Amino acid sequence: MPTASSVHPLEQPHSGRLLLCASLAVFAAAMVGILLRPLGYLSVFWPANQIVLVLLLRYPRLMRPVGLAALFASFVLADLITGTSLWLSLGFTTANLCGAACGWLFLRRQSQRDLQMEGQYSALLVFFASGMASLVSAAIGGPISAWAFDLSMRQGLLMWWTGEWMNAMVLLPFLLALPSARSSGAKQERQSWALKLLPALAVVGLEMTSYMVGNKVGSLVFSLPALLWCALSYRILTTAIITMVVFVTKVIVISNIVGFIPANVLDVASLRLGITMLILGPLSVAGSHAARAELLHRMRYQAHHDSLTDVLSRNGFVQASHALLKRLTHEGSSAAVLMLDLDHFKRVNDNHGHASGDRLLRDVSQVLTESLRPQDVLGRIGGEEFAVVLPHISFEDATAIAERLCHTVRSGRFLTAHHEPLQATLSIGLAYKQTLQHGDSLEDLLREADLALYQAKAQGRDCAVWTAPLSAA
């Protein structure tokens, strides 16, 4: 499995700049949490610990002593500026960092897709990891808060544990999914903006209804169906953002009604655990939906690509070429079709083994792919035979490409499976149509190119041959 250093393939900044940026981010998050703190008690919403956890996952160098010291100092500085005593700040900061380190130890070896919330069990992994991290943090911070705020040990542990776990489930999925916004996730079907906005509008409507109903137990879950709709309609990052906004709003609104204070410890703990469990629903659905989309994408890819060379398989080439030629015919444009055959390929298998033959096919496929234009269609249609469709091309350019492919393979440096030098050449047949018309089929063009290929072999191989009558048609 990938280690933490490969979870987010982003360029890591210079160490000094990394420490500064990480420290500022944690300091700012801690200040936000302190501003949301009820008078004389712990914060209602504390984002700093989750930011620390994500920073540790993205930049493992922060786990070194100097990195941990910088993060520790950021927490303490925020506390001291806002009037918290030094000893209390040291205790709370130790609890915060120990919890983040516990979450890091569990999550750092998970797959990249799971750490981007795109795996089938991503939400459950985050759920259990944040639960364990919250327990470790509460084991340290709970007794300290009980002593600081004159609570019983049970009250201190409950308030810290439930608050930390709820904060993690609200914020951590969003932070983990954030980098995947730049990745090429599964494409959604094109829809009008109105249809795309319906799930989000449903969330807004149900949330407003829940607040109109008032402080009722059932109103907490009013928006759950709409959140599940979002999970099935949007990418994981969008779902994580909507879920985070919904439940952060709930926490802030409910905290003003119930009062997140020691006198209401059981109600507050129950509410926080309820929110934590509710968040798991839409995030689990979104992760499963993303995993299913990725699986379907892989299956489609495997169905249309050759497993050895990674170019289009015969079936994939035929489908792609039919679609391309149909569009070119509608436009009245030109096209060339090439049939390519590796010369004396059987000798490679007989003299050097099938592993060397497989390696040669892979290497030649890569050379062909790099030599063709992005709009050209390349496929392996059997054994050592390949085919290419060149759209929007003149006859002169098509023959130049065919000759260039021969030259590139002839001068290429290929190796056997035992790293011995290997010589390879291509024979190519070309068929050309200056203006595609209805009735011009892929099969006819391949047949003409195949006839030209036989002529190339008859002329001694390692050359390209084209048929003038078809090119002039």
UniProtKB/TrEMBL annotation:
<keyword id="KW-0812">Transmembrane</keyword>
<keyword id="KW-0472">Membrane</keyword>
<feature type="domain" description="GGDEF">
    <location>
        <begin position="333"/>
        <end position="469"/>
    </location>
</feature>
<dbReference type="Pfam" id="PF00990">
    <property type="entry name" value="GGDEF"/>
</dbReference>
<feature type="transmembrane region" description="Helical">
    <location>
        <begin position="18"/>
        <end position="36"/>
    </location>
</feature>
<feature type="transmembrane region" description="Helical">
    <location>
        <begin position="160"/>
        <end position="181"/>
    </location>
</feature>
<dbReference type="GO" id="GO:0052621">
    <property type="term" value="F:diguanylate cyclase activity"/>
</dbReference>
<protein>
    <recommendedName>
        <fullName>diguanylate cyclase</fullName>
        <ecNumber>2.7.7.65</ecNumber>
    </recommendedName>
</protein>
<keyword id="KW-0808">Transferase</keyword>
<dbReference type="InterPro" id="IPR029787">
    <property type="entry name" value="Nucleotide_cyclase"/>
</dbReference>
<feature type="transmembrane region" description="Helical">
    <location>
        <begin position="66"/>
        <end position="82"/>
    </location>
</feature>
<keyword id="KW-0548">Nucleotidyltransferase</keyword>
<keyword id="KW-1133">Transmembrane helix</keyword>
<feature type="transmembrane region" description="Helical">
    <location>
        <begin position="119"/>
        <end position="140"/>
    </location>
</feature>
<feature type="transmembrane region" description="Helical">
    <location>
        <begin position="88"/>
        <end position="107"/>
    </location>
</feature>
<feature type="transmembrane region" description="Helical">
    <location>
        <begin position="269"/>
        <end position="291"/>
    </location>
</feature>
<dbReference type="InterPro" id="IPR050469">
    <property type="entry name" value="Diguanylate_Cyclase"/>
</dbReference>
<dbReference type="InterPro" id="IPR000160">
    <property type="entry name" value="GGDEF_dom"/>
</dbReference>
<feature type="transmembrane region" description="Helical">
    <location>
        <begin position="193"/>
        <end position="213"/>
    </location>
</feature>
<feature type="transmembrane region" description="Helical">
    <location>
        <begin position="244"/>
        <end position="263"/>
    </location>
</feature>
<dbReference type="InterPro" id="IPR043128">
    <property type="entry name" value="Rev_trsase/Diguanyl_cyclase"/>
</dbReference>
